[in-house]
């Protein structure tokens, strides 16, 4: 089964978006380089960020996100983001009215069911769980193997927390990756078991 990786860009003080769900300067690193990160040409990063991020993106088979992110992005218009094969949406509600049942989105109730479904779909590829409330729930349930953060040089003060509402201590190993890109610090930690 694929490893589960919690991932997002994050402010220095631990937020993935401001109070209005806007990531703002957290994504500057994705548009200020000269190396295209995907085929769209809209995402350009430094060579260091490309060498770190592109191989990771190529390993991800399934992304897990919460219903809030799904609704904020309008379900990515039924196309999983970044070339991902499937998206598993953690929700207590049914898919939106008129949703195409053939779209590679799977609506499940609960983070444990989401990880199980994602691992089934991903096979030996990585399962990426979006940081925030769902990611924090997966970490608290012991379902996350690795934490990746792209730390942007901004302080939000308030907003949506990287680890959601996790309120107990979880130990990570020392970072096994620390790379400085342009307007970003890439960090990777293994979750201590």
TrEMBL record:
InterPro entries in the cross-refs: DHFR-like_dom_sf, RibDG_C
One Pfam family it belongs to: RibD_C
Start and end residues of each Bacterial bifunctional deaminase-reductase C-terminal domain: 112-172
Highest taxon, organism lineage: Bacteria
Name of this protein: Dihydrofolate reductase family protein
Organism: Glycomyces niveus
Species classification: Bacteria, Bacillati, Actinomycetota, Actinomycetes, Glycomycetales
